Amino acid sequence: MKVPFEQVPDLVASRRVFILKGYAYVATNQVVSLLMTQYRSHLSKALVLTNRKWTTMIREQEKDRLTPIVEALSSSYLGPDYSQAKDFAEMSLKDIDQVAKSSFPLCMRHLFEKGVGLKLDDALAFWKAEFSRKVGAERFDKEYAYSIRHNYGKEGKRTDYTPYSCQKIISSTPGVGDHHGCPYRQFSEENLRAALGKMGVGNRALEDVIDKVRNRHYQLACTLTFEAVHGTSCDAGINHPNQYFSDSKRILELQDADFLITG
User: Fold this and answer.
1) How far apart are CA 128 and CA 120, in angstroms?
2) Where is the DNA primase large subunit C-terminal domain (predicted)?
3) In 3-state terms, what secondary structure has residue 3?
């Protein structure tokens, strides 16, 4: 199929298509790229028109019914509840370093999540060891241990809190010295490049991630990181740190099973 080269930018960028005199010659098995580009173009135009109609007419008409629902969608998380680890066995302290290296997203490497299965006693021990380096054991017991027990539903209203979704993490504004924000939003480009390099993201994949960050597409940046680290696509995108962890564990277990069968 012969089409203008600008209709298949991903094929051109990855040098997977023959170009001659401004036209790209797309093979049958590459047509999906053309369709995706056309779909995104039509969707973008439709969203612009919808937004215009929404702001000029529908928002006011539906202010008591649809408007609150629609305008909350951008910050809503409708995915699985990760308040408890369901897919994998409980994790012990001795497993953290290895599992973090293989399956934690960048944010979890800086702020551990209870949704991966760490028990309360182990969480307290882990954070006490980490925080004591900076604030001392006595101050940790007085100022920080309560918050950890509270998150596990053992203090206060005894609510078993759900770990934050990507959207909530991105929208948070950590203070100086805090580590609970989204690294793709909060890190300097230099620090982000270094952190991604340690995860094994390099060359073109690294530049693609940085490009998404520069355009403030932080979840897309995390999704590209996942794909680069695991060597597989993530069509659903990353919407929650524990989703990253769960999907990573499944992929690694499948890879281990394939190795045992074929090896």
Assistant:
1) 12
2) 111-245
3) strand
